[in-house]
Amino acid sequence: MCGIIGCVGRGDETLDTLVHGLSKLEYRGYDSAGVALANSHIDLCKHSGKIADLREALSERTLSGSVGIGHTRWSTHGPPTDENAHPHQDCTGDVAVVHNGIIENYQSLRDELVSAGHTFTSDTDTEVVPHLIEDALEAGADAEDAVRETVDRLEGSYAVAVVVAGCDSVFAARNDSPLVLGIDDDATYLASDVPAFRDFTDKVVYLADGEFARLNGAGWTVTDTDGNVIEKDIDTVQWDPEETGKSGYDHFMLKEIHEQPRALRQCLRGRVDELAGTVDIGDLGDLSPTGVQFVACGTSYHAALHGAQLFREAGIPSQAFLASEYATATPPIGDALVVGVTQSGETADTLSALRAARRRGARTLAVTNVVGSTAARECDHALYIRAGPEIGVAATKTFASQLAALNLLALGTSTTGDARQVISALRDLPGHVQEVLDESAAQEVAELYQDANAYFFIGRGYQEPVALEGALKMKEITYKHAEGFAAGELKHGPLALVTENTPVFAIVTGDDERARKTIGNVKEVEARDAPVVAITDGQSDVERYADHVLQIPETHPRAAAVLANTHLQLVSYHTAALLGRNIDKPRNLAKSVTVE
């Protein structure tokens, strides 16, 4: 979850480069931050709080060095204090380390080090790393070997970056936590994610588990655990650095909600032929699944629920599983295709689930946004959603693109009678989303119900995952209680919580049996004096029973899910804005969950 940055070759600009990189990575964690520069000694500054707090602390300090590392933290071991902020040092102060992940054997290592006379100043698992390096250096190892020996002793997930006083290099290693190099003509960068250095270069090298990197003035080398040099491909990032800015919007989340039409066009481009009524995802090969198991977490799990419905509708047995449960209790797989839905491609629980499936001999497919991510590299196949970088912690455009990509996957690997209608609806989807963005009354609804005690979201069929996602968005950024339900479940317990101060958002599209049954649920809450907000395409008479209506264009039910979700994103956003919440950086959360 934390963000790591390192650079070599920027000279006097090293400190500014590190802090700039941290500002681009703050979505990965914002409990505390720090930097360390290496010269004949280590200059270090760290501070609890956000990057702005670190900047203020640095304004009162003078740090020098042309080799450096930085870190922005999401707390796992120990609270967000100055002492627990990274980088961490050894007893001599000659080693500085930043780390993302969890070192599972840290307690035994710490006990060993304390017994040997080392003094610890933090509650973190990370602090064992510099002390282990210190011991190796004192035993005669050079800096690189000392780091290698230390990494060999670590168990768990980690991405580590190290600087040593008197050494002109940054050393790094990874296992189950992302690291990527940025390659420029006269400088080399290291980070948890590309936005950290995208303003300086578009050339990247993705490190794999077990690989070790050394960055210095001569360039960069990647080696395996035995020290053998690995020839790595240099990839080119396709998106522009301006895409990680706010572009005049008050928040990244609002910008990314409004980027959904473009994200959907990118997802669909070159993959659908409306005239022929076909979908082309031929780069995946002939998957022909006889069964599908989806694994995912959070928002991606809601997209997976949508995907599972698509395949079941096509006659292919399909289920969606929470990745954290799947990884620890893997169900029978048979010859099912296992699909991991993960925006970052680095979600720890989803990677564990995919690896469990592969150990069982299953074919795996990653539906992800990030080229070169761990999921994309480890799975047999990868389907990219092409949403572009998403900085806001609460997923918005990536969810819309996941739904579109899963529709393409279902259409491209199975047969359905209304394929032409679905393809037509997908082609219309970017324009329809823009129509919702232009005309939504979400802000007025938010103003009316910003003080509600709780919020309920209900839907059936394709709209049930949207109800769950609407509730999650409300919880994530407003800190208000919200729950999503399959509409029919409302009367099996949750109805006891419904009052005149619990607005119910009912997603009703079409005029089929599902719509009519959901209207019945609307009448049930109306009878309990709950205000009702209907998200509808106008085909049913739900408006008769609703206090407020958020209209979507008439379209296929699959595409209607994306349109209804857009309204709910806006409702949550405007509610959070009215409540004065930190929308892009909600408390206790980070963008990419890379620890289990």
From TrEMBL:
<protein>
    <recommendedName>
        <fullName>Glutamine--fructose-6-phosphate aminotransferase [isomerizing]</fullName>
        <ecNumber>2.6.1.16</ecNumber>
    </recommendedName>
</protein>
<keyword id="KW-0032">Aminotransferase</keyword>
<dbReference type="GO" id="GO:0006002">
    <property type="term" value="P:fructose 6-phosphate metabolic process"/>
</dbReference>
<keyword id="KW-0315">Glutamine amidotransferase</keyword>
<dbReference type="GO" id="GO:0097367">
    <property type="term" value="F:carbohydrate derivative binding"/>
</dbReference>
<feature type="active site" description="For Fru-6P isomerization activity">
    <location>
        <position position="591"/>
    </location>
</feature>
<dbReference type="GO" id="GO:0006487">
    <property type="term" value="P:protein N-linked glycosylation"/>
</dbReference>
<dbReference type="InterPro" id="IPR035490">
    <property type="entry name" value="GlmS/FrlB_SIS"/>
</dbReference>
<dbReference type="InterPro" id="IPR035466">
    <property type="entry name" value="GlmS/AgaS_SIS"/>
</dbReference>
<dbReference type="InterPro" id="IPR017932">
    <property type="entry name" value="GATase_2_dom"/>
</dbReference>
<dbReference type="GO" id="GO:0006047">
    <property type="term" value="P:UDP-N-acetylglucosamine metabolic process"/>
</dbReference>
<feature type="domain" description="Glutamine amidotransferase type-2">
    <location>
        <begin position="2"/>
        <end position="218"/>
    </location>
</feature>
<dbReference type="GO" id="GO:0004360">
    <property type="term" value="F:glutamine-fructose-6-phosphate transaminase (isomerizing) activity"/>
</dbReference>
<keyword id="KW-0963">Cytoplasm</keyword>
<feature type="active site" description="Nucleophile; for GATase activity">
    <location>
        <position position="2"/>
    </location>
</feature>
<dbReference type="InterPro" id="IPR046348">
    <property type="entry name" value="SIS_dom_sf"/>
</dbReference>
<comment type="function">
    <text>Catalyzes the first step in hexosamine metabolism, converting fructose-6P into glucosamine-6P using glutamine as a nitrogen source.</text>
</comment>
<dbReference type="InterPro" id="IPR005855">
    <property type="entry name" value="GFAT"/>
</dbReference>
<dbReference type="GO" id="GO:0005975">
    <property type="term" value="P:carbohydrate metabolic process"/>
</dbReference>
<dbReference type="Pfam" id="PF01380">
    <property type="entry name" value="SIS"/>
</dbReference>
<dbReference type="GO" id="GO:0005737">
    <property type="term" value="C:cytoplasm"/>
</dbReference>
<feature type="domain" description="SIS">
    <location>
        <begin position="445"/>
        <end position="586"/>
    </location>
</feature>
<dbReference type="Pfam" id="PF13522">
    <property type="entry name" value="GATase_6"/>
</dbReference>
<dbReference type="InterPro" id="IPR001347">
    <property type="entry name" value="SIS_dom"/>
</dbReference>
<keyword id="KW-0677">Repeat</keyword>
<keyword id="KW-0808">Transferase</keyword>
<dbReference type="InterPro" id="IPR029055">
    <property type="entry name" value="Ntn_hydrolases_N"/>
</dbReference>
<dbReference type="InterPro" id="IPR047084">
    <property type="entry name" value="GFAT_N"/>
</dbReference>
<feature type="domain" description="SIS">
    <location>
        <begin position="281"/>
        <end position="419"/>
    </location>
</feature>
<comment type="subunit">
    <text>Homodimer.</text>
</comment>
